[in-house]
Amino acid sequence: MSVRNKRQLMHVVACKIMQAELEAASAGMRVELHLLDQGLHQTPAKMPGLIQAEIDRIPADAGPVLLGYGLCSNGLLGLKAGPQGLVAPRAHDCLSFFLGSPAEYMRRFNEQPGTYFMTQGWMATGKDPLGCMQEDYAPRLGMERAEWCMREELRNYTHFCLIDNKVGDLEALRRRTRQNCDFFGKEYEEIKSGLGFFRKLLQGPYDNENFIVLKPGQKISLDMFI
Hints:
By secondary structure, this protein is of the alpha/beta class. The chain has nine helices and eight strands. A five-stranded mixed β-sheet has the order 2-1-3-4-8, sandwiched between helices. Strand 6, helix 8 and strand 7 form a beta-alpha-beta unit. Helix 6 packs across helix 7. The relative contact order is 0.18.
């Protein structure tokens, strides 16, 4: 599919974790963001129904709906393209957006599998390890139990890596990442990335390696990601 017309109103159904990056990447374009709560990742079985409902609300005469999601524990399986068509990244994890491509995500995963990546969106919504422990686990489990659970979740990670996408207050993000490193005993790492994959989603072209383009009525299936 060719490059998108910047004057056309684009509809993007995406995880709220990407809000800042999508807003920055869409500067100068006509874009309507349909943002869903990041907590959906914890219940992937509910994801298709809620995302489908959002897709179904978009006007039938709009251009192809763009998805700001990776496969996310099979949370996209069964999604059906409406009359507008549907464009989905051929990515297993949303980190592909922040790292620049699914290929770059796999390269880094294979090179250093014990890396826990941090982004502006994860920290802004309190989904970094310290945030999860303090804001999610502790109220339910108590602080001592919450800390034990989080350390168990992180036991196979060796590095906390901040992805600098040129979005947000970099110094504040560095401080928060280092706080996580110090508390959980992990090595600090930082890499520079950009908004290239976000812009590609918004503008195209949609190459077969990185994107799945569905015609009206087609459904997302697992074999599309293999």
